[in-house]
Design brief:
- The protein is of the alpha+beta class.
- The chain contains 17 helices and 10 strands.
- The strands form 2 sheets. Strands 1, 2, 3, 4, 5, 6, 7 and 8 form an 8-stranded mixed sheet that branches.
- A hairpin with an 8-residue loop joins strand 7 and strand 8.
- Helix 2 crosses helix 3 and helix 13 runs antiparallel to helix 14.
- The chain is globular and about 65 Å long.
Length: about 425
């Protein structure tokens, strides 16, 4: 068994579940891509290694606790810089939590009590904050990062109280890489509104990191569209050329030119409208369920196939099989599959909510806790109504709130388990 002493960093987006319920599929995917584009360069710059993404959450490990904390500080200042340039609906606010300890390394993932504590400490943080445990505080270079004791906290599932610290916001001096705060003793003072909340304390240590320009980041999907659609565009151009070759010269300037122009316009519209969609999703968008099933069978086994099979089964209203496919894909770190399970907990169909809750309980991921708590506390008119649908046996009643409560118990566990 391989182990290592690492700093564990969790980040997640404030109000992610609420925003997801108000966004369409494409809007949500765009937000997550934007989130990744903003944070990933910072993780890499400070030597972080991404272990996995879980919905809106990152789990990243660092060999140095100091670098882990500095990375969190840099993330918050970078997001501040981005958020001040965009409208409120486009803004992204995250919280950062850090713990340190010996973890078990297995299959590219990390396991152990330090990971569980880091996930719990995240609940102590507010958006825009960096919080860390006493283990991090004792091991890090305190001359590089100011800190503030936030006292001991009882964390669910953790038998002992954990002392938590945070990086105070302050008007630190901006300067060259390696600079220290101008006056650490006054770090708790609020920074001027025109300055980053942490004064660029950590960002100045990163060389060649471009500013988070909204125009570039918000239009990233168009760049991907051009790349992903290049092959289709070339094929359409070749088809147009073949058509042009068959048109007599005298006709070219008349009907032939108009027809070819129409062909190109229709092809371009099709390219844009289907960009980013798999053949399975395109078939589902047309209501062609049989065609979608045929396209799924062409795919190689793997997380993408599991995810798309889930979409097909969900379209068939077989919520049990759909959730199982999404669960299988999520276990292989398929972000959209996990996100879809979260979305299903807000469905108008009880069996959709119930089966999603069961799957999330089996996955045992902290990122699902918020959605499951919302479901456990919700009120739906179709609860406890006998159903003969595909969600369960004939005559069985559905209670998604009970399933959510059971899933929460599976994820949160009990002290000593």
């Amino acid at each position: 068994m391989k182990t290592a002493n690492l700093a564990i960093v969790f980040t997640d987006i404030k109000g992610f579940t609420a925003r997801t319920s108000q966004q369409g599929f494409e809007e949500n995917r765009r937000m997550l891509r934007l989130h990744d584009a903003l944070l990933m360069p910072v993780f890499k710059a400070f030597g972080g290694r991404k272990i996995k993404t879980i919905g809106d959450a990152f789990l990243v490990v660092f060999e140095s606790p100091t670098q882990a904390v500095l990375c969190g500080v840099a993330i918050q200042d970078r997001l501040w810089d981005f958020n001040r340039r965009v409208a409120e609906p486009e803004q992204i606010h995250v919280r950062v939590a850090i713990n340190m300890g010996e973890v078990r390394l297995e299959g590219g993932d990390v396991f152990g009590e330090p990971v569980n504590i880091a996930a719990r400490v995240e609940g102590v943080a507010d958006a825009g904050e960096i919080v860390f445990t006493e283990a991090v505080y004792l091991a890090m270079n305190k001359a590089e990062v100011p800190s503030e004791d936030r006292g001991q906290h009882e964390l669910k599932g953790i038998p002992e109280k954990i002392r938590v610290y945070r990086v105070p916001k302050g008007a630190y001096r901006l300067g060259a890489p390696g600079d220290k705060p101008a006056d650490p003793t006054s770090a708790g003072a609020a920074a001027p509104a025109e300055n980053p909340p942490y004064g660029g304390l950590a960002l100045t240590k990163i060389a060649n990191l471009p500013a988070p320009e909204p125009e570039t980041l918000l239009n990233k999907d168009w760049t991907e569209l051009a790349a992903n659609g290049a092959q289709s565009a070339r094929k359409m151009s070749e088809q147009a050329i073949e058509v042009a070759r068959k048109v007599p010269p005298k006709v070219w300037l008349g009907v032939g030119a108009a027809a070819i122009a129409l062909f190109l316009v229709v092809g371009l519209v099709h390219l844009v409208s289907s960009a980013g969609k798999t053949p399975v999703e395109q078939a589902l968008a047309k209501g062609d369920l049989k065609g979608a099933e045929q396209e799924v069978r062409k795919l190689k086994p793997g997380p993408e196939r599991d995810y798309l099979e889930g979409k097909v089964e969900e379209e068939k209203k077989d919520y049990s099989d759909a959730s199982k496919h999404y669960e299988a894909a999520a276990r292989q770190d398929h972000r959209e599959a996990f996100k879809r399970l979260l979305e299903m907990t807000e469905s108008e169909q009880c069996w959709s909510r119930a089966n999603a809750a069961v799957a999330l309980g089996r996955l045992k991921r902290q990122a699902a806790v918020g959605a499951l708590r919302d479901l456990a506390d919700s009120k739906f008119s179709d609860e406890n109504v006998p159903s003969g649908g595909l969600g369960g046996l004939f005559g069985r009643t559905c209670d998604s709130r009970v399933r959510a409560a059971e899933a929460l118990k599976a994820i949160e566990g009990k002290p000593g388990e």
